[in-house]
Amino acid sequence: MRRNLVLGLILTTTLGIVAAVAAIDRDRSNLPEIVRVAIVRDARELDLAIHGSYRLRDMSSGQVIGKGNYLVESKVRLLERGILVGLEIYPSKRLTIEPARDASIIIDQRPFRGEVTFIRTPDNHLTVVNNINVEDYIKGVLYHEVSHLWPMEALKAQAVAARTYALYSINPAGKPYDVTNDIYSQVYGGRSSERYRTDLAVDYTRGQVLTYNNQIIPAYFHATCGGMTEDARELWNIPDMPSLRGVPCGFCQNSPHMHWKKNFHLKDIQAALNLHGYKAGAIKDISVVDRDRSERIEHLKITQKNGEELVLKGKDFRDLMGPNVLMSNNYEITMQGYYVNFVGKGWGHGVGMCQWGALGMARQQFNYKQILAYYYPQSVLMNYHELVHAETIKDSKPTEAK
């Protein structure tokens, strides 16, 4: 019965995802295939090894200023005259290692495909950026986002969502990188994170992205929605569209994150508020003001012992307490003297694909296109090379991608 209901919903969202696009007069968009991933930030030094032949290029001049066949583990440091690599000083503020085809670059004992650029920041720290083909990047992501033992259709759905989010995030004119390697973009581990089954999922879906009105969408995803996904506009300044509206989800009930409980001392909450500039006094009570249609908290009221009240958005309160501490924005509050209990459901911001829901759908024999159609209604599945307009739907970036 549930399967029939869900299939009906998929069919009524304007046929869900369309697998092909006809009569496109350009066979390639100007979307780059390279994703720039910040794999190290604000470092003083790091370990580097290169297994194979390589060249070193100064990115300001474009000139090759060094080369070699093999580099044993060496230190990389910033000096006044440039960047120290092993025993050589290279007069560069942006130094790129270009490996030969079969070579590996190893940063802090982690191997990476593609090129690596060392950047001197204005405050004299090192930022390290891995410039990598989007398909290889996704292979380094999937293992960290879902279990490689999950059904293949769930892995394919995750591969498409991750690829879509990566290409949506590309911003050539902005920062020297597009994404980070943590939960604020997508967790990425490089070559050592690749697994046979997750690699297959990437290869099976090669090039496929989710679009709406011929634009790449920010295909957010999260661990467990707790019963209903969230409207993106409830959290971020983003145009309203069907593909980013919440849908009911009964597929994540077996998630280990379905139910959770956290206990805080009121002084710890007061300290967190003050740390983020709210100037809170001793707390007497915390209560829910209102909820949105997914039952997530829109506003909280914090009553202080001096009678003053502080009203916060639910998402802002979760951010200041920590998104991995207060696991979702769907919870009940119980005051207990100097302590407070938060009893909640789900893990993550709730927008887009529920990963444990995708697992539940795959176990009920839904394929990856049906999974994506359900969590991103009215989206269209396209090969990103075939996009007529290489555009993305822009928003204010979330503090937590998952």
Tell me what the structure shows:
It is a single chain. By secondary structure, the protein is an alpha+beta fold. The chain has 3 domains: 45-124, no CATH class; 136-252 and 351-386, no CATH class; 259-345, no CATH class. Helix content is 21%, strand content 32%. The chain is built from 9 helices and 24 strands. It has helices at 2-12, 134-139, 142-145, 152-169, 196-204, 266-275, 314-321, 355-363, 368-375, and strands at 34-43, 45-51, 54-58, 64-68, 71-79, 82-85, 88-90, 94-99, 104-107, 110-112, 115-120, 126-133, 179-180, 208-212, 215-216, 221-222, 259-265, 283-291, 297-304, 309-313, 331-336, 339-345, 353-354, 380-383. The strands form 6 sheets. It has a 7-stranded mixed β-sheet. Strands 7-6-5-2-9-10 form a 6-stranded antiparallel β-sheet, with no helix packed on it. Helix 4 (152-169) packs across helix 5. The protein is globular. The model is unreliable at 10-29 (pLDDT under 50).
Radius of gyration: 23 Å
Class computed from helices, strands and strand pairing: alpha+beta
- Arithmetic mean of pLDDT: 89
| β-sheet strand percentage | 25-35%
As residue ranges, the low-confidence spans are: 10-29
Short description:
By secondary structure, this protein is α+β, with helices and mostly antiparallel strands. It contains 9 helices and 24 strands. The strands form 6 sheets. Strands 4-3-8-11-12-1-13 form a 7-stranded mixed sheet.
